[in-house]
Each structure stands twice: as C-alpha cells, then as structure tokens.
Amino acid sequence: MKNLMTRRFGIAAFALMLAVPAVAQGPRRFSAGGASGGRGERVDYLAGYLNLTDSQKTQAEAIFDAAKTESAGVRGQLAGAREALQDAVKAGAADARIDTLAASVGTASGQLLAIGSKAASKFRALLTPEQIEKLDSRESRRRGPRGAE
Fold it and tell me: CB-based contacts of 109: which residues, under 8 Å, 6+ apart?
C-alpha cells in the first residue's frame, strides 16, 4: 500500500513538474486574446476592450507592475526548485527528497498564483459593474463550456 501511494505521489510530482512551466508564467487571465504579451500590451488591450478611463489605466499599470516586481524573485525560486527536482529525478533520489523538492515547486507555484490573483482582484476593484460584466463574459467565453482554458 505504501509503495503504491509513493508511486502515485511520484507520478503526481512528475505531472506537476511538467505542468509548472505553464503555471510559472502566471495567470494569463488578462492577456490579450490569450497572448502572453508584456504588461503594457495587456493593459493597452484591457483599456480598449473595457474602455478604461485614463485613471483606471494608470492604476492598472501600477497594479500589474507591482505584481511583476513581486513575482520576479519567486520566479527565480521556482526555476531553481524545478531544476533541483529534475536533477533529483535524474539522479534517482530518495522519495523523501523528491517529496521535499516537489513541495518547493508547489509552494513557489502557489505564491505566483497568489500574486497574480491579488493583482486581478485589485484590478477588478477598479472597474465599474458594466466593465466587470464585460470582463466576466469574455472570461467565460475563453474557458468554453466546461470551464477550462
């Protein structure tokens, strides 16, 4: 039973390791048409799509700039954690070591997700009810019928 659980966790950790590059890019929720353009392009797209006022646009730029700055160090940690996990897998490291390294990857991924989610929340707080409705409508269309991107 324990061996089966360990193998399942190892498979899950490996799957996470493969998925982390997408997570490490941060939430793509506010990217223009799914493109992962820079902050300026993203804000310009949102400004046009949601008809943001100059004040909203300036505040959005500040929010996304702060998130980018905050996430820079975490992205470095994530890259190091992923590399360490890959090296451990290649070296046939003990399960406990892989567990620890996978947890580090998960923690850094979670931190990036939190930073992006906080920025999204702050951005939404700037919007009028009509802008929020338009943004939510766009997001539900992007996710499709099952809610997945």
Answer: 16, 20, 23, 24, 78
The counts of H helices and E strands in the chain are 5, 0
3-state secondary structure 36-88: CCCHHHHHHHHHHHHCCCHHHHHHHHHHHHHHHHHHHHHHHHHHHHHHHHHHH
Cα 149 to Cα 141: distance, rounded to the nearest angstrom: 9
CB 143 within 8 A of CB 149: yes
pLDDT at 78: 96
Report how far residue 65's alpha carbon sits from residue 120's, in angstroms, rounded to the nearest whole number: 12
Residues in the chain: 149
| Tens-digit pLDDT profile for residues 87-135 | 999 999 999 999 999 999 999 999 999 999 999 999 999 999 999 999 9
* Whole-model pTM over 0.70: no
